[in-house]
Amino acid sequence: MTGSICFILHAHLPFIRHPEHDSFFEERWFFEAVMESYIPLLDMLHRLADERVEARLTFSVSPTLMTLFNDPLMQRRCEAYIEQQIELAEKETRRTQGRGIEEQLAAMYLRRFKRCRDFLRDFCRGNLTNAFCSLRDRGIVELGTTAATHGYLPLLAEDEASVRAQIMTGVQCFQRFAGFPPRFFWLPECGYYAGVEKFLAEAGIETTVLDAHGFRHADPPPPGDVFSPARCPNGLTVLARDPAAAQQVWSADEGYPGDPDYREYHRDIGHVLPEEYIAPYILDGRIRINTGIKYWRVTDRESDRKEWYNPLRAGEKARRHAEHFVRMRKRAFREHNECSDSAPVCVAPYDCELFGHWWYEGPRWLEHVLRLTAADPELETRAVGEMAARRPPPPSIRPADSSWGQNGYHEYWLNESNAWCRPELHEASERLRAAVGRPPPRRGSPEDRALKQAARELLLAQASDWPFLIRSDTAGRYAEERFRKHIHRVHWLCGFIERNEPVNLPGLAALEAADNIFPNIDCLYFRDGRE
Amino acid sequence: MSDYTSNGGPKGAEPLIDQKIPPDDLKKRLDAVDSAPVESAPSAVPYIALLPIDPYRLHAFWKISPSAYTAALEQLGDAGTPALCIRMLQLPGMDALDEEAAYWFDVEVHGFSQSWEIDVAEGGRCYRAVLGLRSPSGRWVAVARSRAVRTPAGRAPDLDMPMPPKQPAPVFAEPKPPLDEEAILADVDAEMKAASAADPTPGASLSSAWSAVTEHAVDTVAEWVIEGRAAPGLQVWVQHRPVPLDGEGRFAIRRPISRHELDAIRLEEGPDADWDFDPPAYWSASRWNEPLFEMAATLHLRGRIEGVAPPALAALGATVKEDGTFGLVKAVPRGAFLPPSVRITAHRTRDGE
């Protein structure tokens, strides 16, 4: 055996659920991810399990996403979305009749959408948690989780109670839905700071992953560089992302997804077909949005000229790119083995939504890699959690603070566009801490419910997604509005406790209905000194 | 799938909070909550918080109430207008006392600002921020202290973030003939074969040559030789140090290779530039279709073989003399792996010259 590859697919979406509206545009992020990423990946992995392909990989599923999977309202809306997609694809097959490639592509989408519907309805009974847990039971997938609302922990570190609440609440939420405690924890945005391992260990976590420079600037740097696991002084096993494996998939310039033969994400029939035709499938019948049906390939990234997408050619490219990926890993492993006795491990974490949604051929590429690796005597795939049990125990290091964000640290979540969020978060958490520090109200009383809801609102405000979206200016207005509302709601709820005033029950019930995540939240995590 | 319920995950999962409120009523209630006035927190204790951004930058934010400010002014009791300052203490450890600070410096902040970005000289150090007033005579009254924080150690490679979506331009759909599977696969085969030629097989790869040489040779010297040219107005940096450029922006550098260093090279993009180029084999970086710099990289191996020369050397075209000495110069194809010690970046110089 030359070495092991640990794939980690990190599945996360912010908690976007708007029962106060009949439909809400940003909820489509969830529906699109379900149809384009999660179902194709889960379907593919179940197929590998059916064929008894020797493959292992790790999924980290965020608590917000798991809650959405399990939410009856979101399940109904997701089913309706898929039915609408099928309706559009059927309409497209009629429109494109006799138009060669176009007709074939429309038929491809129709088949695919129907397959999604069948998978979700018949195989998962509407809840994708079932497919994830089933894969875990079949031994092909390890399931882990992340912080409750994907809070960016290095920037919450000035308030350790918030870090603990993010980790403990996330772990409890995962356990509630999955039925077992997670052993692997994905640090949101791969954001590590010295000290977070204390809370991870407290939550029963055994393994996590850092970016490469968290290892390379560690004290001391581990002898196997990024190819060997290491341990924090408290025993937490840490692994490092392999930058070369990341580059080959992630890089906008040199990564596989930019290949001219792959499907172009940015050109969608929602933007190009006549308005009277596409109106029922775009926003308010007039604002053009992606529909998920795209007939063109990347062709030339620098040009607007796009040629027809050719799924055969793209599929073949995915296979060749998989071969290249495997060849590169073997080459790196051989180099490592020349100077080290420890078996090398390549840790390759990616955002799950990259596969299928952004990179249409991603699931196919991954399937090829898993099949190639299973058939190769020099390689194996492993779940990250298996590394904690490695013997002899890996060397002890003090990792360096790091993230996988731009320039490797925290600036994407703390810069001139979103720095205003920090004092808002600080003051809201101080206020909640003061409210929680008062004599505890009777369990189930309006005051108890208000405190718990305030804790939910604070966790939702701490999501890394809001500063990220504000910085990238994609849905920045929505992100800012969400952030401000959650902060406002913390203050509104804590005000009743501070003033010893009866809680506004209609308002409280509305917040419980809208932000209904973490029903069993323990708001005492926000109190100082709780052990 | 019988172990799982159809709704709510595995059996035994507790139900979600499910307040059944009709959407219209819910919206009204939420609007009422979100528009209700809220008082700020009753306690008006001044604070300052410090967050590291990267090894060399920290972000401080604070709040100081008028009454706390007035109290500090009275305590200062000095003539002249005091300055609101952040006193940055560099501490020997996270648990160290302020008095143990190795050194400190003051950052004078604007009176109305409530946050500041602070540059520090060293990464991996502990700092505490103290917010206070400093009189013209140097007297100091502290108002609030932050927790100690440690800046990250070292620097990082810059890895790409996912690209944000961009709006496409409209196109017109034209009917096309159906797919011809055989022709497509033959076409892909030819293209991939061409790509494979540029990406040598393991038997003749650069890394296998390196392996062969280090196994069989003595007195081996290996280095990258990189020659290139930067667009006007750009400065080229290697490992954060500027490289001398001649009058035409040309540069040449040699870097020794560590056999353990294998990583993907990154070419950072700089601002726009107007420039043409004509190198035979090159790496280049461009922005918006305009080249920024180009370079050609060659791998140089020199040494002496004891015994029979390994076939990998001959396969790569190395000449081995009778005394066993050999030399090999190999152009590095675009997309090959280069070690981080040749990480090259280009930046526009401050004055644009």
Structure description:
The complex is a heterodimer of chains A (531) and B (353). Chain A is an alpha/beta fold. Helix content of chain A is 48%, strand content 8%. Chain A has 19 helices and nine strands. In chain A, the strands form two sheets. In chain A, strands 1, 2, 3, 4, 8 and 9 form a six-stranded parallel sheet that branches. In chain A, strands 5-7-6 form a three-stranded mixed sheet. In chain A, strand 6 and strand 7 form a beta hairpin. In chain A, helix 15 runs parallel beside helix 18. Chain A is globular. Chain A starts with a strand and ends in a 17-residue tail after the last helix. Chain B is α+β, with helices and mostly antiparallel strands and 353 residues long. In chain B, strand 10 and strand 11 form a beta hairpin. The radius of gyration of chain B is 32 Å and the shape is elongated. In chain B, 28% of the residues are buried. The interface between A and B is large, with 132 and 103 residues.
Give the topology, please.
The complex is a heterodimer of chains A (531) and B (353).
Chain A: E1 3-11, H1 28-50, E2 57-61, H2 63-70, H3 72-95, H4 101-123, H5 128-137, E3 141-146, H6 153-156, H7 160-178, E4 185-186, H8 196-202, E5 207-210, H9 212-216, E6 230-231, E7 237-240, H10 243-250, H11 269-272, H12 275-278, H13 311-339, E8 345-351, H14 362-375, E9 379-381, H15 421-436, H16 446-461, H17 465-472, H18 476-498, H19 505-514
Parallel strand pairs in A: 1-2, 1-8, 1-9, 2-3, 3-4, 5-7
Antiparallel strand pairs in A: 6-7
Chain B: H1 23-35, E1 47-54, E2 57-63, H2 66-76, E3 83-91, E4 103-108, E5 115-119, E6 126-134, E7 140-145, E8 149-150, H3 181-198, H4 206-216, E9 217-230, E10 234-238, E11 241-242, E12 250-256, E13 283-287, E14 290-305, H5 311-315, E15 319-320, E16 325-331, E17 344-348
